[in-house]
Amino acid sequence: MRSGALETLNSLAALRWELLSELEPREGWGSCRGKSSRRGRGVVRVERIQRSGERSVNGTGRKAISEFRFPSPPLHSRRSEEEMATPAHAKVARALASSAAALVLLWCVHFRGGLSLGSPTNKGLIFNVHPVLMLIGFIILGSEAIMSYKILPWSHDTNKMVHMLLHAVALFLGSVGIYAAFKFHNESGIANLYSLHSWIGLGTICLYGIQWLLGVTTFFFPGASPTVRRRMLPWHVRSGLVVYMLALLAAELGFLEKLTFLQANGLGRYSSEALLVNFTALLVVLLGASVVLFVTAPMHNEHTHGYSAVHKP
């Protein structure tokens, strides 16, 4: 009597198991295993009874429990919404950058008369191109390029491409800004390279170009071996931050030098234009500090898409 009931239970369990196993070949379904694995919250619990009628290993005849698992999604698709969102530090940096860009444009257009690379009468319009391109192109785009690895939600290769292109655009605009300064000096009969601002500024843009060329040839095209890239990466990051801080220093010296000249020619020390220039310089300092703190601060997802070492193939 007992053996007949046991056979009936075994038959029902076997039928149930066969019905559930028919779902397994479907795309997106996993296999039955003893440990739980979750995709979101979708876990199907499956009870199975030994078909041989023998008692289980623990001798109690209890049902063995396994779970029907969904496959885990790829790593790149498991990023939470919090990781995909722009970090608060980056939002602060972007707000400072936008404010500084608006103020430098207000200064050069409203107070200084506008921008032009070929003005025959007002040579000051040629100079106005210099601070605009050096700040918006060189520093702000450079800041965005430095933060790109930690704020962009794309793959490592895509972020690397954006990082390289932003630096290229920043280098180009900075070169045009340097050209505008030399053009203004030459057409106005002013000597070149006599101030600390000009020395640090020209040296910085040269180092910027060298840094960009080394980065492209090492990490992009033609690309060095994985061993060389792993050794070069920490130095690439550190030297990039040094060049960025030199660019900030050159910008501060430039604001100070220009404002000193304007005040020597009659601009009031507490005039609206003087206060505007000082506030712009202050925003640049805060922008640089926020960028450096953001890219050097440890983050929980830094190894995945931050300044992590180059993995072995």
Automatic annotation (TrEMBL):
Q: Supply the CDD domains for this chain.
A: Cyt_b561_ACYB-1_like
**In this record, what's one Pfam family?**
Cytochrom_B561
> What transmembrane ranges does the database entry give?
92-112, 132-152, 164-182, 202-223, 235-255, 275-295
Stored InterPro entries = CYB561/CYBRD1-like, Cyt_b561/ferric_Rdtase_TM
> Which SMART domains does UniProt cross-reference here?
B561 (SM00665)
For the keyword Membrane, the answer is: yes
Q: Which residues form the Cytochrome b561 domain?
A: 92-296
What's in the GO CC field?
Answer: membrane
Q: Name one GO molecular function term.
A: oxidoreductase activity
Keyword check for Cell membrane: no
Predominant location of this chain? membrane
Q: Say which domain of life the source belongs to.
A: Eukaryota
Question: Which keywords does UniProt give here?
Answer: Electron transport, Heme, Iron, Membrane, Metal-binding, Oxidoreductase, Transmembrane, Transmembrane helix, Transport
**Topology of the protein relative to the lipid bilayer:** Multi-pass membrane protein
Compartments annotated for it: namely: Membrane
| Cofactor(s) required, per the database record | heme b
Q: What does this protein do?
A: Two-heme-containing cytochrome. Catalyzes ascorbate-dependent trans-membrane electron transfer by utilizing a concerted H(+)/e(-) transfer mechanism.
The name this protein carries in UniProt is Cytochrome b561 domain-containing protein
